[in-house]
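User: You have something folded?
Assistant:
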Amino acid sequence: MTISERIFERLRQLSMTQREFAEEAGIQQSTISEWKKNKTNPSSDKILAICKALDVSPEWLLSGVDPAENRGKN
C-alpha cells in the first residue's frame, strides 16, 4: 500500500472528507486530489501535518507498520 492509499484508507476509517482533512492539515484540497489520483505523493514537509490530522504515527504513514503494535514483543 502506498502513502496515498494509507491516507485515503484512514480518511474512510475516520469518516473524514477531503475538505475536512485539508482544513485540519493545512494542505490545499487540490494537492490532496492529486494524491488521490496517484499523480504525486505527499512531500516530506507535509508528513507531520498529515499524521497529526489523521492521528497516526509517521512510521505507520510511511511504512504501514504501527510501532505500538510491536511494543512488548521483544
About this structure: The helical segments are 3-14, 18-25, 29-36, 47-54, 58-63, 67-70. The mean pLDDT is 89.
